[in-house]
Specification:
Strand content: 5-15%
Structural class: alpha+beta
Distance between the termini: 77 Å
Radius of gyration: 22 Å
Strand order of the largest sheet: 2-3-1-4-5
Order of helices and strands: HHEHHEEHEHE
Number of strands: 5
Length: about 220
Amino acid sequence: MNTMATVLLSALPLTAGWVVHVWWLRGCLSTARRDPLTGLRTRDGFTRRATTLLKDSRAVVVLADVDKFKDINDAHGHAAGDALLKATADRLAHHVGRSGVAGRLGGDEFAAVLIDDHGTAADMLAVLHGVLARPVDGHDPALHTTVSLGWVRAAAFPADDLSGLLRRADEAMYAAKQARAGMRRAGLGWLFATVTGRRAGRTGARTSAPVVGVAA
C-alpha cells in the first residue's frame, strides 16, 4: 500500500468523528432555537428567518398577544394555560405556512412574518383572529380567549429593520388590545410616542401622547 493510501485510511476515523461532531452541534443549535413548549422558533431563530423574509416586498410583520392570559392560568391552572399557548402556536404556524415564519418571543407573545401574495393581509389576519379564539381541542370548552393582533406591511416602511417593524406592530397590537378591536394595522406614523423603544404604557415611556395614524 502506498504512502498516500495509508495517510487517507488513517484520516478516515478522524474525519468521520468530525462529521458526527458537526452534525451534533447543528442539532444542538437547532434545538436551542426552538421553544420547548410550542415548538416554534425562539427569538433568535425567528429573527434569523424573518430578516431573510423581509427582503420580499410582500412581507407582513405580525405581533400577537393572548388576551387576559393570567386569568386563564388563575381559573384553569398552568397546564391549561400551556395547552392554550400550544394551540395558539400551532394555529399561527399553520396559518403562516411554509413560506413564512412564526416564533414565540416569550410568555404569551408571538410574532410572525407572512408573505402576502394577493394583497389581502387584512382579510387573512381577520380569519386568523377568529381561528385563534376557538376553544382548545380536547379541553374544557371554556378554555379559550381572544388574541390581539398588530400588523404592518414591511414595504410601507422601507427604512425599518425587523426591530423597527416589530415595534410598529407592537404599538398597533397594544392599540387593538386597549380598544378591544381584535387587530390593528400600523399607520403612517408612530401610534404612540416612545422613549428608547418603549411604547406608551410601558415603564420608561411617555403616557400623555395622543394616538395617531391608526388604521383598522
